Amino acid sequence: MPSDVFSPAAALTFAACGYGPFDAESSYAAAYDTAHTPPVLGGVPEPLRSVLARCVAVGPVGPQTAGTTDRANQPPAAP
């Protein structure tokens, strides 16, 4: 079974900028934000920000896995 990368990405976000991608005043608000708002990644430097944004994104696509994240980060194939 593929591994979900949401939790490691959230931990890396905290390590990079000192706050999580869905910090809130309470755990209830953080849970709501996780499901309904985009992650806050302003303190994360590029190119790490774009990778973490895909890893913690919520929506109809579902959670990212290590395999889908790795394929998304590959450079385009040469023509």
Q: What is the gist of this entry?
A:
The protein has 79 residues and is mainly α. It contains four helices and no strands. It has helices at residues 6-17, 27-36, 48-56, 66-72.
Structure overview:
The chain has 79 residues and is an all-alpha fold. It has one domain. Helices cover 48% and strands 0% of the residues. It has 4 helices and no strands. It has helices spanning 6-17, 27-36, 48-56, 66-72. Helix 1 (6-17) crosses helix 3 (48-56). It is globular and about 50 Å long. The mean pLDDT is 80.
**Category by helix and strand content:** mainly alpha
* Largest β sheet strand count, sense and barrel closure: none
Q: Tell me the strand percentage band.
A: under 5%
Overall shape: it is globular
List keywords for this structure.
4 helices, 79 residues
Topology:
Elements: H1 6-17, H2 27-36, H3 48-56, H4 66-72
Helix pairs in contact: 1-3
